[in-house]
Amino acid sequence: MPQYGFFFNQDRCIDCRACVVSCKNWYDIPAGPVKWARMFQWEKGTFPNVRLHFLFAPCYHCQNAVCVDAANGAMYKEEKYGAVLIDPDKAKSIDLRKAQEACPYGAIQFDSDAINANASKCTMCIDRLEQNLLPVCVEACQMRALDFGPLEDMMSKYGTNSDLEDVPSSATVKPAIIFKAHAPKKQLIAYNVDKAIDLLGKRDALAPLSPLYASKADATTTYPNLVGRDKLVLKPANSAEAMETTQHDEG
Predict the structure, then answer these.
(1) pLDDT tens-digit profile of 122-144?
(2) Which ranges of the chain have pLDDT less than 50?
(3) What is residue 151's three-state secondary structure?
(4) Strand 146-150 relative to strand 4-9, pairing
(5) Nearest by Cα to 55 from 172, 185, 173, 165
(6) In CATH terms, is domain 4-186+230-245 a member of 3.40.50.1000?
(7) What SS3 string covers 184-241?
(8) Per-residue b or e along 26-63, where b marks 16 or more CB atoms closer than 10 Å to that residue's CB
(9) Which long-range contacts (CB under 8 A, 24 or more apart) does 183-186 make?
(10) Rounded CA gap, 131 and 218, in Å?
């Protein structure tokens, strides 16, 4: 079976959300938790080694699509491009939440938390592929952080890595995506970290105010609930959490 797939360059991505907004606009997806393409942002580390991580997460149209096995016949692997699709007629009478749970990336979307909520997902823009057009998310990427084509071509151009830090292992499902991880963070300008922490804590330039923190540890320690997005949440517990973890994605 032919298999088409994506390439995502984490090093070039600036989290502009053009990919996800263009997807919602192209398919007239209403504002809300349904986002066929998602962009995730999460922060790790403490001063001076803080790092933002970005992840482009549509459906990766896995070669071993475990969601299909869990969908009771309501999903299938399309044969021309290798797209994983929902059969809308069969899905009306089948709850696809088990299929969503089986997917390590949480690609299947629901329009509410109700038991009979409508399920949908990224279609690989198969309608556009039939017109020799790229998926709309790829075409919208102004930083050229995305590419798409036959998976063998993507592997030939970009390598074979299908894993990123904090993203579930690709070993079982074999997602049709190639990742380029961002380069290690570099210190471009040398400076004294301890002195910088002391200066950041002082507030007595114009008036004698108490320091922002009592010790250097307060500035270099991560505390619970201090950072709003300190981890990748691919499978939110409900619609509210889905909206929280993918803000600014509305078309």
Answers:
(1) 999 999 999 999 999 999 999 99
(2) 251
(3) helix
(4) antiparallel
(5) 165
(6) no
(7) CCCCCCCCCHHHHHHHHHCCCCCCCCCCCCCCHHHHHCCCCCCCCCCCCCCCCCCHHH
(8) bbebeeebbbbbbbbbbebeeeeeeeebbbbbbbbbbb
(9) 183/11, 185/49, 185/51
(10) 57
Cα-to-chain-centroid distance, residue 241: 14
Residues 42/231, Cβ–Cβ less than 8 Å: yes
Contact between residue 173 and residue 104 where contact means Cβ atoms under 8 Å apart? yes
Domain positions in the chain = 4-186+230-245
In angstroms and rounded to an integer, the radius of gyration of the C-alpha atoms of the chain is 21
Long-range contacts made by residues 218-222, C-beta under 8 angstroms, separation at least 24?
A: 219/46, 219/47, 220/46, 220/47, 221/46, 222/46
Taking the C-alpha atoms of residue 165 and residue 181, their distance in angstroms, rounded to an integer, is 8
Residue type for position 162: S
**Among the listed residues 75, 102, 101, the one whose alpha carbon sits nearest the alpha carbon of residue 89:** 75
Tokens (6 digits) for 121: 């997902």
Per-residue H/E/C for 34-72: CCCCEEEEEEECCCCCCEEEEEEECCCCCCCCHHHHCCC
Read off the pLDDT of residues 134-179 as tens digits, 9 standing for 90 and up: 999 999 999 999 999 999 999 999 999 999 999 999 999 999 999 9
Q: And the tokens for 219?
A: 């500035």
